[in-house]
Each structure stands twice: as C-alpha cells, then as structure tokens.
Amino acid sequence: MLREEQILGRSGEPPGQVATRLTVRRGGRTLLDQAAEHGPGEPGWDGPAVLAHHRAIRQPLVAAPDFEIKPPEVQPFGDVPENGRAALTPLAGPVAPGIAVAPDGLRLRHLLDTAQIILGAGVGKS
C-alpha cells in the first residue's frame, strides 16, 4: 500500500504546482507507469474533468498478488461531490491505483476514512 498526498496551496492562497510520476515493476515487467501534473500552467488541470475546485489530491496504490486471481471492481467513494470524490481502479495484474480529490486535506482524509471502512484495509489513513 502506497499513499501520496498533495495539497495545492493554503486556504486563501493561490494553488501550487506539482508533477508526480509513479512506476511499479514486478519481475522486471512494468505494471503501472502513471504521471500527473497539476497547477497553473498545466492545461485543464482545474477544469471539471480533472480537479475542478478541489485542491487536495491523494493517489493510493494497492499492490497484492491476490489481484492476479480475481481483480476487484472499480470502487467509487463520496456521496457529496462538493466534499470530494475517490475511486480505486484495478488494472490487470496485481495493481490497483486510485485517485481521491477534495477541497482540502481534512475532507480528503474523511473521504478516505470512509473508503477504508468500506474496503476493509484498502484505501485509507496514512
């Protein structure tokens, strides 16, 4: 389980900028190669298809050999879009990356605490 969290700007301040890349290999084979860039200067980063008004991002990653047998289904979380959204999106093989966005770090953690309760030990607290 890996969790990476970014907060783009403090309350009342303009957002910051971040670029991340995560590569997961197993047995010399690339299972996941994911890059993300958010902040001023990145096209569409604050549009409705990416972050919208949210400024807190967490990218959880679950990797387990059990996923090779029966991958879990996509798990969306968050009933109130204004409070954030999250999803665990399994891939073929033993990797399930996710994404969670919320207006701030507190709501992000609450959203992921709810997801952890639903998943058991899946996506949750740091």
The N- to C-terminal Cα distance equals 10 Å
Overall SS class: mainly beta
Strand order of the largest sheet: 1-4-7-6-5
Tell me about the largest β-sheet.
5 strands, antiparallel
Give the % helix. Answer: 10-25%
- Mean of pLDDT: 77
Q: What order do the SSEs take from the amino end to the carboxyl end, as H and E?
A: EEEEEEEH
Count the E strands.
7
Report the radius of gyration as a whole number of Å: 15 Å
Strand content: 35-45%
Shape, per Cα inertia axes: globular
Spans with pLDDT under 50 lasting ≥5 residues? Answer: 120-126
Overall tally of domains = 1
Describe the structure.
- The protein has 126 residues and is mainly β.
- The chain has one domain.
- The chain contains one helix and seven strands, in the order E-E-E-E-E-E-E-H.
- Strands 1-4-7-6-5 form a five-stranded antiparallel beta sheet, with helices on one face. Strands 2-3 form a two-stranded antiparallel ribbon.
- Strand 2 (18-26) and strand 3 (29-38) form a beta hairpin.
- It is globular and about 45 Å long.
- The termini are close together.
- The model is unreliable at 120-126 (pLDDT under 50).
